[in-house]
Amino acid sequence: MTQYAAPGQPGSVVAYRARYDHFIGGDYVSPVTGEYVENVTPVTGDVFTEVARGTDADRARAMHAASGAARAWGNTTPRERATVLCEIADRIEEHATELAVAETWDNGKPVREALVADVPMLIELFRQYAAVVRAEVGEVEQLGRSTFDYRSFQPIGVVHERISWTFPLMNACRVLAPALAAGNAVVLEPALQTPASIHVLLGVIADLMPPGVVNVVTGSDDHPLVAGRCPNIFFSDVTARRDGFLDKALEGFAMFAANQGESSTAPSRALIQTAVYEEFLHLATVRTEELRSGDPLDTDTMVGAVVSLAQRDRVLAYVERGKAEGARLVTGGEASGHFVQPTIFEGDHRSGVFADDLLGPVVSVTRFDDLDDAVKIANESVAQLGAGIWCRDVTLAHNAGQDLHAERVWVNNYSPYPANTAVLAEYRRVKHLLVSYSDRG
User: Fold this and answer.
1) Strand 343-346 relative to strand 328-331, pairing
2) Any idea where the domains of the chain sit in the sequence?
3) Domain 19-223 is of which CATH architecture?
4) pLDDT tens digit sequence for 64-120
5) What is d(CA 334, CA 331) in angstroms, rounded to the nearest whole number?
6) How far apart (Å, rounded) are the C-alpha atoms in residues 131 and 117?
7) What is the dihedral sign for C-alpha 238, 240, 244, 247?
8) In the structure, how many helices (H) and strands (E) does the chain have?
9) CATH class of the domain whose range is 231-411
């Protein structure tokens, strides 16, 4: 066990400023209105810093700074940009513990998750996109005997993105890494609930980039979130043996509580085949009750604090609604401060606690009879961003995965997904240079 000191306490690896202005054009600048917002850590419920309140005027200043920097950055070679991205990755690796603690203090997630998942993913993002753009070459197509189409990639210019509070640093870097690799300047707006960790990241990497290439405007609360009701399907053969596979499946069930369930791909609906329903639900309940809640800065803690009291109240209202609808509360359902117990409901898959969106440590459990029944129930969700399948029969698992509507299907695992380099296409355009070498019309 490692117990990290809280920011502001002796021995802490993170030191926050008392106040953060907007980061525009390579410098911190005061908000146009002079207004600031208190930033509360969900770990203790205390105010630990304040950030500038962003307005349209501040966004305009940031966009202007980014526009001025975009041309020069976009004219650098892919090799030059790849070098900077690798330097960013190295710097993040050097400050991994500091960034993990900063993310925990801002978001409430267990520091163990930030250390083993979030921060390593940041490093991987920058290194992977650096490798892609460094290795890419353009294309040439011969259109005629003396006419050629030279195709190359160009940046779109300025990327402006709002960053949700669910994974503050990871979501920010999922924009930064491909956008910078493509040659764009960036304006980020972190969510009002979690604006501070991005400033810690800036303190680590800002000097590696020209002024204005990365800008941050804080204090905006207009951040729409998508909470997918992702199904996690457990076929009857998972309990065929008491072995490592069963243990892995139970761990997959408990993933609903990872990051306090504050993820658009959290497996918040569990479908268990009728033949083993009671047996597997019992084992899954035991595994859930073994999840250790507590101080997020303790590496033994598995479930941390939800991001805000407003989100806690939303989760608790959802629990009360489930009870009112007749769903059985198997375990959990209580809260203290920002901390909500991992909660299991069971009941009819057509009820509200199965259909509605939620970003919290709650899973709704139902049963299914066969493959067709499982697919039918799973596909009732319209916001199915991900799904899990647990089955020893790989043919059955393959067929189930093909029929699910989910964009991403995990089979016998439920893990964070790696960088998707296809995202680069969103941050650049293809330039066609059509050249005729003929001296005739």
Assistant:
1) antiparallel
2) 19-223, 231-411
3) 3-Layer(aba) Sandwich (3.40)
4) 999 999 999 999 999 999 999 999 999 999 999 999 999 999 999 999 999 999 999
5) 9
6) 21
7) positive
8) 13, 20
9) alpha beta
